[in-house]
Amino acid sequence: MQDSTFIGLDVHKAAISVAVAKGECGGEVRHWGTVPHRPDHVRKLAEKLAADGGRLHFCYEAGPCGYGLYRQLVEMGHDCIVVAPSLIPVKAGDRVKTDRRDSVMLAKLHRAGELTAVWVPDAAHEAMRDLIRSRATAMRVTGKARQHPQGFLLRHGRIYPGKKGWTGAYRRWLATVRFTHPAQ
User: pLDDT value at position 38?
Assistant: First the structure.
């Protein structure tokens, strides 16, 4: 793999920290710099790194930024893997985390073959998964929000006489509940 270059990316919302490891085992691993997290800058980065003529192998940690970067790099003809943070080997006592160190570590581990890639969904699958997760979150938040007024009513001795809460009948009853100030 003499003509291969391994690139570790520490990806954030606004910027990507880049580290480069040449293909030879034990070779130099250096922090290349930081680029804005925008498609045009990523394209320019890949073109600069590919100028040597070798094959580029990118990797980055899965996170909230999604898989757009993966798709862009693969469409450009480069290898790219996405790694779950829980699957990245960590040395004991290695607690200081910086963008620079993380990108260098990813480049080293990728070159050594010690990273396990996760499955990357296509755009449609990712959109459906995001929708399902958003709905689940909304349902969980709604349930918690409903508990607050029910607790308030219970503390003030107002108990709904029906069987099931949050129905039309419950909402009508809720609109009729009256409270009196303790001083009255």
Answer: 97
